[in-house]
Amino acid sequence: MRLKPEGVSNAADAMAAIEKFVFEEEMVTLPQLVEILKNNWEGNQVLQMKMINEGAKFGNRQKEAGNLACEMVNYFVEWIEAYNSRMAILSFPRVSLHFPGL
Fold it and tell me: Which among 25, 66, 79, 83 could disulfide-bond with 102, CB atoms 3.0 to 4.6 Å apart, if both were Cys?
């Protein structure tokens, strides 16, 4: 298994955009977004640019994306620890992320 740290920031950015435009602003429903993604944004480039440019971004001191990134990393660490306790194979140091001021 190889960890890719850039995946956390990309996933946090995507989740923050979904949270904002699907659940908070209700610009599109989740099923509609799934269909849009299946069609590679065809005919929905305005929404695509809005989600890319106006969603919270990890690393820009925006708590929405930072909090989501922390949740993802902490969930991953808990999963690895649970797996390790059953299999006693992996060695993974305990990591907890917290971004003061976010």
Answer: 66
